[in-house]
Each structure stands twice: as C-alpha cells, then as structure tokens.
Amino acid sequence: MASGTPPQATEEGAQVPDAGAALATTLRSEFEEAEKRRRLQEEIWLEDLRQYKGLYDPSMYARIGPHRCKLFVRLTRSKVKAMQSKLMELLFPKGDKNWSIKPSPVSEVTPERHYQDVMHLIMVRAQAGIPPAVPPSEQDVKDWIQKEAAKSAAAMSEVINDQLNAINWRRESWKTLWSGHMYGTGIVKGPLTEIAMVKNYARAPMPTGQGFDVGVGKMQMQISARRRPALYNVPIWNLYPDPYARTIEECEYMWERHVLVPKALLETANRLGFNLPLVTKYMNDHRHGDITTLRRFEVDLRTMSNAGETHQAPTGRYELLERWGTIMGWQLQAAGMNVATDMLVMPYECCVFILGNQMVKALLNPLPMGWNPYKAYYLDKDETSLWGEGVPRISRDMQAGFNAAFRMSIDNGAISSGPLIEVNTDLMDDEEDTESIYPWRVFPRRGMGADAAAAAVRVYNVDSHVGEHMEIAKTMKDLSDEVSTVPSYSYGAPSSNAANTLGGLSMLMGQVNLALKDVVSAWDFGISEPCIAGMYDWNMAYHPDESIKGDFECEARGASSLVAKELSAQSHMGFLQATANPMDAPFIKRDYLLREAAKSLDLEADKAVVTEDEAIAARARGIPMPGMAGIPPGGLSAGLPTMMPGGGMPPPDGGMGGGMGGPPQPPTPGNMPGVPAKPGAKGPKPGGNPMATPDMGRPPALQAGF
Questions:
Q1: Cα–Cα 20 to 30 A to 79, which of 17, 382, 640, 651?
Q2: For residue 49, what are the CA distances in angstroms to 63, 77, 208?
Q3: Residue 11 to residue 535: CA distance in whole angstroms
C-alpha cells in the first residue's frame, strides 16, 4: 500500500520547464505498463497476507458452503514470526555488528596522506631514540601505513555505526526482513543524502551584572540542519520495477509511488528543489487531490482490515511518482535540457519526479557510476522472476492440506457426535414438535393399514473418522516443517522426537542454524554489503573529517561470524557438560571455557567470571569469591578424587591429596583404611605434609599408575 513517507533525493535538481510535459506523459505511460504487469504478483502477495492472517479467499468460502466448518489454523503465522525473530537475533546481536570495515591488504593512499604518514613515523622513531637521519626502511613504511589505515578504518566504522543508529537502521532492517519473510522480497533504498534536523541542548548564558556567572542558565534545545546518509525500507506495494527484468541489476527503470497529503507534498517540494510554480499550480487545479479511485490491491487490503466501507478513495491526497533509470539524450533535449548533439543517442541515468502529467524535477543520477539505489533481500528466489517467495507461498500447499484435514475432522466429529433422525411428518401428530430431541422422547403418531406398518422415525449413525483425519493433519504439519526449514521445536512447540532431550535439542538447533546460514547469506549479499559500501562511499565523498578516510574494504559477516557464533555457544556448553566430571577436571582449564562460553552468549566475561588475579587475591585473603563456594584454595582440580589403579574411587578421607592444596597423591600402605603399614614404618614428621613424596610434581594420573 502506498505510504506517506516523502521520497528522498540526493542533490539539488534543475528546474524543469513546461517542455518536460511531453516527456512526463511518455514516462507515465511507462509506469502504467509496469503497474499492469505487476497485478499478477499482487494477487500472490494478497494470498500470502490472507494466509498469514488466517483468512480464506472469498471464492474458497463459497466452495466450502454455509454449513461446513471454516476453521483456519494459522501455522504460517508461527513460522513467519519464528523466522523473523531468529534472523533479527542472528543479524543484530547485543554489542556486535554484522558488518566490518578493514584496510585493504595493500592500502593505497594519496601522496599527501603518504607524506603525512611518513613524517609521523619519523617523529615516533625520533621519540624512541632513532635519529631522523636514519630513514625508515620501505617495509617499515608499509607496516606503518597499514597500522594507520587500521586506525582510520576503525574510526570510519564508528562513524558509520553512529549514522546507522541515527536513522534507526535496526527498525528499517526489521521492516525489510519482515517483507522478505512474508512476501519473499524486501527492498532497501539508499544511501541517499537527507537534511536531518538534529536537536542539541546547551545552557543559555545568564545576563551579566546580576550576580550570576555566564553559562549557568537553563538548558535550551537547539535545532540545526545536518546532511547525513540515510537508508530506507520501501514497501513492495510502492515499487514498480521493469516487468521484463529478472534482477534489479537488469532493470532499465524502477518506479516508486508516493501518496502524500498537501503538507507533505509542499515540504517535499521545498526540500528537494521541485519546480514550485508547477507544483502550486497543479495543487490549485486539484484542490481535493488527484487520487479518485483506489487500486485493486488497496481495496483488498482495506477489506482484510475489516474497516467497513473502505472502497472510497481518500480525498486531499496526491500521487507523486519517482523514477530511477535511463533516459535517452534526445528525450532529455525534447524536455528542454541542454544535451550535446553527439550525445543524443546516449542513455543517461536520471532521477525524475512526476506529479500528474508534469515533470517537477529531473537530475542526473548522483550515485557513483549511476548505481540503482534499490537493494533487495530474498528469502527464496530463482531466475524466473525479479520477485522472491516468502514463507506463506513456500508452505501454501501444506497449510491448505492441514486446514482441509482439520475441517474434515471437525465436520465428521460434529456429524458423528449424535444420530441423524429421519421423521415422516405425515405420520406424526399435528401437535408434535419434530425439531427437538431429548432423552426419553416419545413420538405420538397416527396411521392405519400400510401407514401403521411404516416407520415414522428412523435413526442413522455416522461413523467417526476423526483419528484418520488428524493423522493427515499431522503429516501436513510435519511436511510444513520440512519445506519451510522452520521446524516447530525451533520456536518452542512440543515435539515427540529427539528435541525432547537436551542433547538432541542442541543437535537439532545446530542443524536449523545451518539451514538459516543460506538465508543470512542472502541478507549479506543483498543488503549488508551494498548498503555499508554505499555508506563508506558517502563518507569518503562528503564527511569533513579526513582522518577517517582511506582504502578500506567493507565486509558483511553475518553468515561467517554470527551463525558460527551461535554454533560456538552450543559447542562450548556441550564441552562444559561433557567435562564436568572428576576424571577430566585436573586436565581442564575451566575458567577459560567459562569465559569463552560467556562471550559466545553475548555476556561480559569479566563480569560473569572472576579473573585469575581476582581469584588469587581472594584466596590469599582467605575470602571466597562470589560463585566459588566450596572450591578449595588449590582450584577446581584440588580436592577432587582421582580414579584408583583398579578403577574404583577412594573413600573421602582416603589420602588422595584432597583439601591439601597440592596435587593428589597415589594410595600407599598406611594411608588407606584397611591396609596395614609396613612393620617399623615411621609416621610423618610433626607439622609436615603426610603425603609429601618426591613425585609431588607429577600429574595425578601418572601418580595413580595410569
């Protein structure tokens, strides 16, 4: 559906004369052709939305009939929401980014920047005692340039991250992912330059001479205009691409439709440099707007919203069309623009705005190399169309089969819940009510002869097949898990398979993450990489701080890092559980494992796990650390019994070194209950360690005879 978001442009455009009306008429015919060609895809999107909302198509309601069950179990909704939540969790983790900026392997810098880096290196060497007369080697210069480039790349990353936060990139990404999961395609537009009104607070100075110092006044809000790059989600209902293209890169043009109220239209005209005389004249000629009828998909969308009578077009709204694509030089010349004679047959990448049949702004595409500003995220796509397929369409047959099985089971359950009764009203008493039935019902009847022999009431019992129908429903649900790659156990639904055990669930969730890796890669290639690269290009061109600029590479690391991080968290937890036993404890650095597990779960390791210095200092003071109750001074391995040579466990006081702070010792005669000491053996010296032997430094397993 058309939105009220004003279109965005990047640079001031030329004022378009009235001669542009002929070109505007030609281009509007092109838009109408693209609109007509998109109608079949609109029907698919409407089916997707009905399936998500749990609504049958009107023709389906007619086929079901008035007396049959119309139940719609919304399996699709659960799977769309599960996919959306999982992708947002993977792509936007706490305290991390799904993209990075790093220097090129061999950074290329301008001569001025090279000179500055070399002079900085010489200064640093001089501070280290190396005289300036000793020049740095070529390798030293290369290493220094790479080091400085790494600092600039980190600064550029922080600037871009701040810009993304300013435009609420997480919200725009949520909308794009939602569109991709619902309809198969999510569109992002940009980065384009916008003039943002930024508010700041500062103290107002107090007047002097009144006993107050300057600068101690009240806080006041200050509004300032600032240029910044911006990325926007574009609803698919607003986008009309070249109908003959199968990818965005193949599109000769892309149309975007905006529905604006008068105030928004005037603000857009002023902000983007439209031809104001044409705009005001058009608005004066169409004082109640120029939208007289709703498009077919708009009628269906409003019908689904249960808004009552919504087929009337809104009043006071204007349709503004925005076109990005190629225009031939001779067409631009006919529109009144200056084009060289030898360039009339050349295509120009342009951005054009059309209001009614008037071109109110036109400019050459300001993006590098005339790039298309639209980027697409696909949940599932093939080469047959520019549009992808979402979860509803992928699982449509399974959802329909599940609903059909459920409707049959309810219809059959209802009709078999009691007898069907046939009544011959000609044989019933005139005063008898034949519409009700209750226990111990008596039917007075009449008739003689042949009528007396005929049954006035017949009872029929219908067999129940509910169990068979539910088996079909279960099969359809299982198939839905398969085709959508969003199994029920991944979002908490009960299961009767391996997901009922902790180890089985961990294994299955790992497999789900591997299936999602392809979807994350689609986001990386379609949205993250081109959008972050565009933000980098914008800052290289327009950002005033030269220290953040350099030869950098933009990398999307959703699939390579974030999914691996998810699997790493499960691996850490599994290893911790597998080694939580007395035999493995002496060989495991558990503090390291706990730190890595905390990091993989997006926790601050230093806050979740005590550091080694904190543990040593606490033991020296005899103070137990939080969460370390019961841990002996020697660490986790000290005090844990070791397996005896015969394979059994020694008794708690069996002389294995427990509680002594040192490594466990092997059992010897005299220190094990029931084993007598050798005759004449001397006891331990007073105050000494009764377990001290020359083998104190050997590993416990070796001492025990392993």
A1: 382
A2: 20, 10, 66
A3: 16
